[in-house]
Amino acid sequence: MPKLLPLIEDAIKKPIWGCQMCGQCVLHSTGMVCPMTCPKTLRNGPCGGVRENGNCEVKPEMQCIWVKAFERKDKLPLPNSWRAHYNDLRPPVDMQLKGTSSWLNFLTKRDQKRPAGWPILAEKSGK
Amino acid sequence: MMSRVSEILENSKERLFTVEFPEIDSGGMERIAKHVDRIGPWFDAANSTDNTAAHAHASNTAVAIAIKIYGIEPILQIVCRDKNRLAIQSDLMGAALHGIENVVMLTGDDVSAGDEPEARRVFDLDGPQAVVVANVLATGQYLSGRKINPAPNFYIGAVENPAAPPVDYRIQRALKKHRAGARFLQLQICYHPDRLENFCRGVAELAPKLHIIPSVVLVKNEKSLNFMNDKVPGIDIPQSTIEGVKNSADPGESAYQLVLQQSKHALSLPGVRGLHVIDFRRDNSLERLMRELGRTPKL
């Protein structure tokens, strides 16, 4: 099963969200828009290069995924507990998890592991 | 030892004036000295940029050390485009070794904005995460938890673009960087006074201890404005502003007056503690701007 799981996850999430199999999914907190589809893979909000029409600095024909996330987090019927995490300070991607199943990493809490020096307390949005 | 920048922002009511140090490619320390002579008397500190607009130049850390030698306090910029988390930490520690304390952590333009768009983009960290990492070092450890004794002294800043979409989120994003450990924010150049004002009001209300330093850029004429409007992602200049400069009797003077007006407006806003100046004119207008803003030159 652990070997099949990434394949199943990829097959479901790629067509819908363009999943990049980072193995540490945060879709629920970003208005169901995958931050790994940002050309800069930014997980903490839009960069300063967003164009006046809301499109991406790198791909001018694409809407900035963080502009999309900002709209969708309120539009989609998501639980408020998910919306509350929108401005969380997400930790750097753990590259060791690339290609693994985020579902399994969620269940085993492997996706909660942080570098020893990372201040977990800073992550929560607060007000 | 506290940096002058932190001394001014944290322990005084004075305004902080910073300047973008011109990018350095060659010419040795003489080139540095020449720039220092021109800008040194007017500013409290100078930003040593990190491959601006995704063009390679002499390194951010090397230039910061060089300008420190010539007596200008550096503000070391570090962007996430070209370096992974190891390299960013070593940049910071190398700077600390030379007594550099002011650092500004930013995401950075994409490689596609530069003259080597075929390069690999890194973004192992993003801006807010990079702020955390600088803060982690300042508490006496690497990100891995490995101890650093004694801990380096950093006065940490970040940047924000008050005018780029989603405009309604920019204040929250600034707060996130503040939560990550940023004490001051240098802002992207902004040609929408209303957006700048909303941003500063919001930040001043929600994070009164986060010091805001808006930026202005001295340009020669409307051509430079058009260039920025077309080529610099995240900078939008209303056509009426560009036309105003173009159709005036003296576009050079008009472009200058625009910056003077922007500077005065920015300095009047809540939460604003100073001004960051980028000079593309390289004529006497930098000195003129400083004088007209009430600055007196240091000897």
How is this fold's topology laid out?
The complex is a heterodimer of chains A (127) and B (299).
Chain A: H1 4-17, H2 65-75, H3 80-83, H4 102-107
Chain B: H1 4-11, E1 16-20, H2 28-39, E2 45-48, H3 60-69, E3 74-79, H4 85-97, E4 102-106, H5 127-138, E5 155-160, H6 170-180, E6 184-187, H7 193-206, E7 211-213, E8 215-218, H8 222-231, H9 239-246, H10 251-267, E9 274-279, H11 285-292
Helix pairs in contact in B: 4-5, 6-7, 8-9
Describe this structure in a few short sentences.
Chain A has 127 residues and is mostly helical. Chain A contains 4 helices and no strands. The N and C termini of chain A lie far apart (41 Å).
Task: Report on the architecture of this protein.
The complex is a heterodimer of chains A (127) and B (299). Chain A has 127 residues and is mainly α. Helix content of chain A is 28%, strand content 0%. The radius of gyration of chain A is 15 Å and the shape is globular. With 299 residues, chain B is of the alpha/beta class. Chain B has one domain (4-292): Alpha-Beta Barrel (TIM Barrel), CATH 3.20.20.220. Chain B is 41% helix and 14% strand. In chain B, helix 4 links the parallel strand 3 and strand 4 (102-106). In chain B, helix 6 (170-180) packs across helix 7 and helix 8 (222-231) packs antiparallel against helix 9 (239-246). Classes of the chains: A mainly alpha (127), B alpha/beta (299). At the A-B interface, helix 2 of A face helix 5 and helix 6 of B.
